[in-house]
Amino acid sequence: MSKKHNQLINFLSNQEQEYIPAVQIAEALGVTDRTIRNYIKEINEKSNQISIVSSSEGYKLQTDDVSMLMVNETELEETLLDFEIVQFLMTRDDYTTYDEIADKFFYSPQTIRSRIQKLTMNMEKMGIDVAIDTKVFKGIMLVGTEIQKRVLLENLFTSISVKKEVYQDFLTQNFSNWVQEDVIESILNLVEEINIKFNLNLEFLMYKKISVQLVIMISRIESGNHVAIELSEEMDFKDFKEFEVANAFCNGIHQYVIASESECIYLTNYLMSLHLDLEEPGVENKDLQTVKKIEQILWNIEQAYQVPTYSQKKFKSNILNHIYRIIYPVSHNLLIYNPFVKETKSEYFFSFSIASNIALKIEKEFNVEIHDSEIAYLAYHIQNIFEAQDKKRIKTIILYSRNYERTKLLSSKIATYFNELEIYKIEKCSQDYAFHENCLYIGIDLAFTPETEKDIIMIQNGLHNGEIKKIRFFLESQNSIIERANIFWINENNPEQAIQHLLQSNQREQFIEAVMKREKMSYTSIGNLVAIPHPYFEMQEYKEEVIIGINQKAMEWGNEFVQLIIIYLPSDDVERNEYIFTEFFQKTKNIKDVVKLVQMETKEDFIHCWNQI
């Protein structure tokens, strides 16, 4: 299938089986609705597993299990060729010409050259530290560590969609030149046994990944290609539960090869990268220096976000254990497995942003590279903290000019009507009254209007329906940040241009570097044509602000297409920021609503449309 065909299928698979009009799909993919109809016709004609059905309301994907779809013959052929080229290059210790590879796989040298160029780009996208070295008159050679070569080969093979009932035949067919058929059958039985013994609850993709790694391990050890892994005196990998599982695998393949200690430690790290469902993931004898570094990171995060990642023992212990366990797999550039990155990034966007900052600090402290899959796991921990905490109420100070007792009675009434308010103090107001930071003020029947920039609601003594409505309207208006947003209609080609344009248009150029720093860590596109760029909480003083951009057409933004850009400059109130990010997600989680928003031509129409969602 073409790239656009796959984007169309992926888009429809995320729409909860709703019918989507062709014009909305076209907006999302950046093509015309006529092109969408042609794509749908081609997909329905070429695929036996996928059917896109139509109605008066639009189109939807019809399939029993999207995750188990087989790719079509063209895509399968291309993916398999990449795998076969890497597999072949791993067996060669010298340079190989394009002609040799072409003869081996019955393709033209031009086709092989083109595939290798695309393969090189894909390796960079995956973040795998392997390169294809090219020398004139000599050819090409795969360069990189043994660990990275194995990770690359396994990822290429497991990216091919195949149903479980034909997996053994598929594995045998593609590794028959590396190991015997009976060895593969034995490995698959071993994975099943270990899965049951340790109650791992392996889903099919993890089952594939482990079995392929074991096949690769046996073949590479037999051919004298061993992993080189530095064994730390401070770090005893036997403390990890995964070591017990890895050791069981090594003992299970003992009849074929002898796995060295380094091989067993590599497999331990690999299993840690999969986040297996183990009952006892904690580590008792931790390296104190590593622990101190992680604690410092968690302390810094708490200072920036006022989220108890350090001060509350339970949260600190959970996150510290998690980071401690993933540092070593990540240090060997083993790709962390997480099938729910996209959902986490969109639904828990604020937690994901805090997790991105944690990841940035881990990268600096431990000289490793953290990808979105691991950031999503960190985001789960942050989200658990938010959900475990009681929501803070707004600190409120009641001001009065006379009659304290009656004011006290009215303050009790106000607290009854408005659960979100915490009546913090009742104070007499004077001309020189000193207003505090981060408090809401309610002035009851004051003799004068105080001169202040602080939030203050002036009401009369009776607290009638009109006064209650005034307080409610004020609280609701505080939550509606879009009303105060600046909106620009732009025509840019990439995220950096769009962010610069919007910040410059709003005289906020000083935030360009901070926002782009966040983008480089992890793109802020969340699907459904939406991106929410924002800076990390760091040294600058922030004042809450929203800048909205509607691009003329959808642009590529990471792995998504984006047309609605919502730049958020945060406040110094963490709960407020959590609320805002949640509102952004709730308002944009349906593609139909987003398509309506990007069709608005004035600020008034946009705000009205937003408020109707």
Automatic annotation (TrEMBL):
Domain (PRD): residue spans on this chain: 178-281, 285-392
Record's protein name: Transcriptional antiterminator
Superkingdom, natural source: Bacteria
Listed InterPro entries: BglG_antiterminators, HTH_11, PRD, PRD_sf, PTrfase/Anion_transptr, PTS_EIIA_type-2_dom, WH-like_DNA-bd_sf
Keywords associated with the record: Repeat, Transcription, Transcription regulation
Lineage: Bacteria, Bacillati, Bacillota, Bacilli, Bacillales
Gene3D superfamilies the record matches: Mannitol-specific EII, Chain A, PRD domain, Winged helix-like DNA-binding domain superfamily/Winged helix DNA-binding domain
Species name: Oceanobacillus neutriphilus
Keyword Transcription regulation: yes
PROSITE patterns xrefs: PRD_2, PTS_EIIA_TYPE_2
Repeat listed as a keyword: yes
Domain PTS EIIA type-2 per the UniProt entry, residue ranges: 461-613
Residue stretches spanning the membrane: none
